[in-house]
Amino acid sequence: MFGYDQGVLGAVIGLDSFRKDFNDPGRYLEGVIAGIYDIGCFLGALLAFMTADRLGRKGSVVWGTWIMVVGTILQTSATENIQMIISRTITGIGNGMNTVNVPIWQSESFKSHNRGAMLIIQSALIALGHPVSTFMGLASRQAEPSSFGWRWPIAFQGVFMVLILLGLPFLPESPRWLVHKGRIEEATSVFAILSGNSVDDPQTLLERDEIVASVEEEKKLGEATWGEVFTEGPNRNISRVLLGAGPYMMNQWSGINSLAYFLPITFERNLNMSTELSLIIAGVLGIQYFCVSWLPYFFIEKIGRRKMLMGSAAACSFCMVMIAIMRKLNTVASQWVFVAFTFVFFDVFSLGILPVSWMYASEIMPLRTRNKGVALGVGSHWLSNFVVVFVTPDAIDNLEHWLYVIWAVLNASFVPITWLWYPETARRSLEDMDEVFRHERFGLTKTRSPGNRTKEGGDGVMRRDPEAILFANEKGSPHS
Q1: What pLDDT is stored for residue 113 in this prediction?
Q2: DSSP 3-state assignment of 440?
Q3: How far apart are CA 308 and CA 268, in angstroms?
Q4: 210 contacts: CB under 8 Å, gap ≥ 6
């Protein structure tokens, strides 16, 4: 649903029926209609920190999805630009709430040894939404000049929302949230369900006791305030907020949504392709994007977040350099090379920046400030998204190849930033990461390799990361 929402406007905004119904919006208005969705997502991310602790991760997603239902109905029935702008804002608010709560819910429920692999499923489904929306836009061209051609693809978002609302009752709540609320028996049952063991199994009890001890330690300090979030302290709160926001911003400032939101338009305006051919190529690219985005599932825990993020950023930078060169040459051959490197860009983006950006913040935030910290990170993502999407229609026409040079430079900068400051979270529990931050001061990280948590020992009990045990017994800095 998330990926579909991002791609559907780009698939219909070029349709004659859409442009007729909305008085042929210019570049500025195109940017507003597309970008206002991200402002809504930003507001939803801020709203999420007020609801997640009270309603739970699951309850917050229910409310976020219902808000999206309302926004989708209003979008589908829109007859004026102002109604489309307001309705896209409402839809964005619901999606913003979900993009805060879903990663937290997932990171609090998955095991440390496969948490990253499980989170890959989320990023892969985001990628799937893009080709679905593109082909929906292509199919709806058959209904031209009727307004059904653009209304149906927007209304189709509701199918995903219904599926979410039907499936949520069967999913367990976050066990860490249940512990935080004192519902220990329910949490124990969820731990047992997630591990496939009984409620009195040693592994289940060990996991529960670790979380209970961590939550009790945090409760002694009282409720976290915003002032605490923006101060360093022994938990390095502000450092974790800044580090958590970084990958979200890398996601946007890589230039991905400068292409993804307006991919058919990019091909039309840059390469003089027909609308139908642009939609077909964009749809095929989206299918490849979805297929490649599954690959990190098999190696993200072994390679780690850092190497994948740095490798992906370096490759994205190279692709943007080539795209800029081909745009500058502007020959028939260079136009098709432009398309080829756009395909490669989406592939390498999906192998690192995409999955890491959506998991990293929720993996490093302490439970005490997790809602607020992740909300700020997601908020930075959506504000960045708005800026990128708002300026893209004009930038395509006015900056020409320099637009892609800017993206290339930004992608290149992500490599040293990641190497210098980002500790590795792979195969470390959320509690292990608390120990990492307590024993590393702000600055260069020394935690550069994945941890050593394994699935289970010979007695069926989850083994603690030896590096975290070292932190608990020594005052020295972590070794990697």
Answers
A1: 66
A2: coil
A3: 33
A4: 429, 431
Tell me how far apart the alpha carbons of residues 304 and 53 are, in angstroms, rounded to a whole number.
Answer: 30
Residues with Cβ within 8 Å of 209's Cβ and at least 6 positions away in sequence, in order, are none
Q: Which residue has the higher pLDDT, 457 or 411?
A: 411
Give percent of the chain above pLDDT 90: 33
Helix (H) or strand (E) holding 214, with range, is helix 202-219
- CA distances to 49, 53, 95, 404, 465 from 71, in Å: 21, 24, 10, 33, 45
317 CB-near residues (< 8 Å, 6+ apart):
408, 409, 411, 412, 415
CB 264 within 8 Å of CB 284: no
Instruction: Compute the C-alpha angle 132/137/140, nearest 5°.
Output: 120
Q: Where are the alpha helices (DSSP H) in 2-80?
A: 2-12, 16-21, 27-76
Q: What span, in angstroms and rounded, lies between the C-alpha atoms of 477 and 480?
A: 10
* Residue type at 57 in one-letter notation: R
Which residue is listed with tokens 């699951």? 58
Model confidence, pTM: 0.77
- Taking the C-alpha atoms of residue 320 and residue 255, their distance in angstroms, rounded to an integer, is 9
- Helices then strands, counting H and E runs in the chain, come out as 23, 0
